[in-house]
């Protein structure tokens, strides 16, 4: 059984965006909303899943997470809306 690795973006109650990595995004989302996730999201509950990308290796997923975290909010919103491909957003760095 192959493991999938994912990068996700959630929108917090205050409208801010949080990017993270998980093997099981649904479980991670539940953890965030239970107040046991990242410190950042604990003060901004609830969070809503806005975007996911899956990868076959953890290394690729973590590289992508880093790349997304370097994007401006506007670029992240474009990514969520489907107006920017993975390649294009990686080129923004």
TrEMBL record:
SUPFAM superfamilies: GIY-YIG endonuclease. Residues 3-78 form the GIY-YIG domain. CDD domains: GIY-YIG_UPF0213. Belongs to the UPF0213 family. This is GIY-YIG domain-containing protein.
